[in-house]
Amino acid sequence: MEKVRRMERVVALTKLLVDNPCHLFSLTQFSDMFGTAKSTLSEDMVTIRDGLGRCGFGTLETVAGAAGGVRFLPYRSGDGTNRLLTELATKLATPDRMIPGGFLYMLDILFTSSLMVQVGEIFMTKFHRKSPDYIMTVETKGIPLAFMTARAFNLPLVMVRRDAKVTEGSTVSINYVTGSSKRIQTMSLPKRAIRPGSKVLIIDDFMKAGGTARGMIDLAGEVGADVVGTGVLVATAEPQKKLVEDYLALLILHDMEEHTKTIDIRPAFTD
User: Fold this and answer.
1) What confidence tens digit (pLDDT) does each residue in 178-195 have?
2) Checking DSSP bridges between strand 103-104 and strand 98-99, what pairing results, if any?
3) In terms of Cα–Cα distance, which of 147, 156, 159 is closest to 123?
4) End-to-end distance of the chain based on CA atoms, in angstroms?
5) In CATH, what is the architecture of 6-73?
6) Are strands 59-63 and 69-73 parallel, antiparallel or unpaired?
7) CATH of the domain spanning 78-267, picked from 3.40.50.150, 1.10.287.70, 3.40.50.2020, 3.40.30.10
8) Where are the domains of the chain?
9) Predicted TM-score of the model (pTM)
10) H or E element at residue 218
11) Which of 80, 83, 218, 271 has its CB surrounded by the most CB atoms within 10 Å?
């Protein structure tokens, strides 16, 4: 590669690191790529780390040792998280999102990649210390959110299906009871999707009583995995007692009044 100026190199390095969150790059890789000494690259990393941190975009982590290197961790700052959740709550509170039967229309937001990238980084920030091996979700609306969370962690996404597919080989299936309607449903997971003994983080778009999340926790247990956390974009305030005891919701839906077309949805916390 033709030798580049420092400013160009810093821009290129930032692009590589930010596009591959949690991926460990060795300085040797960068040294070969840019024809630059490792000591010079270390100075570049300090500049990038300070710039990203000052703007609240994340941080660089240095891993020591022969197999070490540097990686970008897309930590979301408290102010940035608060602004995004407030923006999402405002979008979801518009009256035209109310669907007859007490449902909230969320598809356009869930399928807006720029928003889901940021939400995925919030979940990564909140659950990073849990060190999951897989991100798990259930088909279908929560897939974009879970996929962006998997991207932030640099981890594979595992999708639970309502019906087993012959193209996925042998599966493990369980029956579970939905928390709100008390109906018995089935969910399945390919046996080879998760290694036994792995740690799993469950991500979903919506939780009412927690029956679906409870089903995923039980299904993960059937394949020998340990669920280390459950994150949802929106949870209802009622019922207050869910079938899942420990979960993180980013937004709380407190009330929907069909007659007045009012939706009361607010951030679940402020950092």
Assistant:
1) 866 778 999 999 999 999
2) antiparallel
3) 147
4) 44
5) Orthogonal Bundle (1.10)
6) antiparallel
7) 3.40.50.2020
8) 6-73, 78-267
9) 0.93
10) helix 211-222
11) 80
> 4: exposed, middle or buried (C-beta count within 10 Å: 0-12, 13-18, 19+)?
middle
- The Cα 181–Cα 158 span in angstroms is 26
- Tallying the residues shown for the chain, one arrives at 271
Q: Which tokens hold the place of 189? A: 């997971």
Q: 98-105 contacts: CB < 8 A, separation 24 or more? A: 98/256, 98/258, 98/261, 98/263, 100/258, 102/256, 102/258, 104/206, 104/234, 104/253, 104/256, 104/263, 104/265
Q: Is residue 38 scored above 60 in pLDDT?
A: yes
Number of alpha carbons in the 13 Å side-chain half-sphere of residue 71: 15
Place of tokens 């840019």: 34
What are the two backbone dihedrals, phi and then psi, of residue 90, each rounded to the nearest 5 degrees? -65, -45
One-letter identity of residue 159: M
